[in-house]
User: Fold these one by one.
Assistant:
Number 1:
Amino acid sequence: MSEACTRIFSFMLDWSAKYSQKIGVTCGVNTDFYEDDISGEELLKWIQAYQSGGISYDTFYHNLEKKEAFPSNWDKGKELDAIERTSNTMFTLSDEKFTSLSNEITRLKKLLNIKDSDEPEEDGTNEENVEE
């Protein structure tokens, strides 16, 4: 279809008196027939299949690429480089940062009067320590 359109437009330009010199024409037809983006459920299934060893990374990447989940100038090599570059920094907390976050969570729990399920009740007893 693209080739036929290119030939038609080239022929039309050749016959046009306005363009006496040859101008290159290329016509491409959109062949992307996906109507919707990747759903969260579908993405989760692909991730689970990859993590469980059910599919290879090549297959996983191919499926994401088909659904245009990556930028147009992205390729598998760039994705693997990005994964390697960010894998150790994305979710790593230093001991100091972890302690700081833990203390903040504890402070907020006290402020909001939220108790952990294993904390004793205010009277100093919990279900396991109650005598019959």
Number 2:
Amino acid sequence: MQTQLIQVPYDSGRKDVRMGNGPGHLVRKSLAQLKAAGVHIERIETDDAFPLEAGTTFKVLKLLSERVRHAAQHAQFPLILAGGCISCVGTLAGLDSGATAVVWLDAHGDFNTPETTLSGFLDGMALATATGTMLEKLSQQYSRFSTCAREKCCAPWCSRLGSSRASIAGQLCGHADYAARRPQAWCKQCLRTSAHGSAGPAGVSSH
């Protein structure tokens, strides 16, 4: 199976700044190895003259969803290098989010909402958006996104969330022992059911 490496060089709707520099830097540093391995590389860009954090971000997510869907339909493995966690929404849209489980390996739970955030940072709301907790209409408008069920999301770092979000995060994967903070056991059942077709999700998206 060929790997399709998709660069999403955006941070807060702005291209090639801050974390948006990361994808290009990683590709440049490993270009020879990637080519030798037969990895196909592409880069997503939008032509917004006046970028908006939410508006431009969701335009980028729409483009990402189309590239991911194309890769999946052609038996390619989509590998996303992005400058922001909100890219998960575009990835899930391309993979048929309703049939995909999410493995959220992130130092941040990203389960903020506009009501709980203290920074207003859209990236801090990524998993909340992916599960339909917020911005559902905007997600559907730009990327034909259907939300991923919370019980299909495993997020061990959610045990580190503040109390204002812990009650929401507690509705995620029921196999995890968030209270005891034992992430080593959090996803065994999810991955087991994912491998059995109708017994579980059709695939797994790792973040």
Number 3:
Amino acid sequence: MSSIFLNAMERLNAVSPYSEGLSFKGMLKKWDDFVYVKQSGFRCCRRLDDRLFFDVLLRYLSTFPPLTRYENFQHGSRPALGTVHKITVAKNSRIHAHGDYHGDLPSLIKNMRFLQSVGILDFDFKVTENALVVCLGDYVHRGPESKKILCLLMQLRLENPDRAFLLRGNHEETELANSWMHPQDEMYHLFSSSELLWGFLPAKEMIELFYRSLLLALYAGVEKNGKMEYIQFSHGLFPIYYDLHNFLEQNQVNEETVYQENNLSKRILDLASQTDDPVRQKAAIKLKRVFDAIAFNLATQPGCANSFLWADCDQNAKTQKYWEKNRGLILSEKICKAYFDLVSGNNNLVVIVKAHRHIYERSPHGKVHTLPASSLNDLSYLISADSPKISDWKVDLIKIPFGIKIAVTAKRMTLFIG
């Protein structure tokens, strides 16, 4: 453990936290006093005390420690990108997935109220039985209320450790703070190199610890005839070099650390030369072509090498162009399907629900679904896991119009897999 993390835990154990006894419900009620101004957006509510924020942060890190995501950042010569997690979804469960909040506190509050109205959250904002809440990353920057967003979401996860999941987005990087921080954001001063908490804890490093504790992806699976089908929730897509196959096949393993690699896995390279399985051979050749095309970008832009955070599915992407500045990896649905074919075996990956690209898009065959940022178009998914086959799951596209607290169902569909 780093001295920073150990000192933080000492601080938590030595004094009575400012956040002791405070609940998600209490926080939300305290801050639910925003006022919409049609011309200029919403006015910030009361300032969040740094002491409260960092007490919640310390409690969060003591429950969900960064471990290998931060402490063992290097594994030989391979940087650790973060951790992926796997769960089994109970029959007739409901899953709410939301994209980028970007410091938009009113959006978060309205979505929590909506989840309460449909029974995903109870009166005390606890996630109900057979329900899941998945946040797809990019909680900070652009809007003025990043710190309150993080505080509420950390508290939500603390109160619902097995039913609320926080994923990491590409904006959960301390290096991006100066580039994307809203000028009125309460977190702005925390990224000053001279800012110390209680005189000895550097704020920036503590926030980086939190970012490193977030999941890269959540795989939610359903069992049918002894086999599992998985839906991937993530901010972006997947690193081409990450061979998900072994993790999906190991039913007793629920978490894995992902490392950056300098080539495709031996298993996939072997499949590219085998002729007895033409479908997988063709898929492996496609992936090798993509990897060869982006190898230079992976080496020269390490910040964008983590395609769980930096990636989009774009049907209009040029055939030979798989990389864009400020977007990262760009893949068509055909390439995504090739990856699905390669990593699937007894257990299958069938669909991805993601964010990152600030538009709503459902790929032609339903393999990849993209949810937009709330500040642009407040849309989210309410997924009903009412079938042992993920492709038959029903999806409500939920829309909360700007300035209105009541959500509406914009569209109902299935996660069709063609």
Number 4:
Amino acid sequence: MTMRAASSSGRARARLVGFAALALALLASGCGAKVGDLSGKVLQKDGKPLPGGVITFYPESGGNPVSTIILPDGNYEIKGVRAGTAKIAVTNDSLKPGEKDNPIMKKLFQPPKEALAKMKEEGGQLAINTAEKLKGKYVPLPRTLTRPETSGLTAEVQGGPQQLDVHLPK
């Protein structure tokens, strides 16, 4: 074997190792992370569907929270939730009488354009939950359900489509 062939072989091996290291770094940084597309019902403590609101999934492994509207029949559909354990928050405060015109609630459901662009870039979904789109009937919920740290609600999100009913605590 000549010296030239040995150095050429060594460079090829170094490039291969470099590409492998890059691929591992990308995987570790979250690129290519699996996401789940969830659908199901949000059920009150009495087993009846929650008649409207917003449900948000907060991935424990990092990444952006993903929200969507709960329809008046209790159903929801959401795409792009990072696979793994997610904490859940549920609210329907914007259904309170008079809240549809509350500027604070409108701002909550109309995130800045920069946030929307970042969500799209990262492959997540953020429902444009304007107060006008949110329909249903207000049902008082415990304040603890509105925060992922206090709701006590979690889900194991798998990659791909998944049926997931969310049972609000008693």
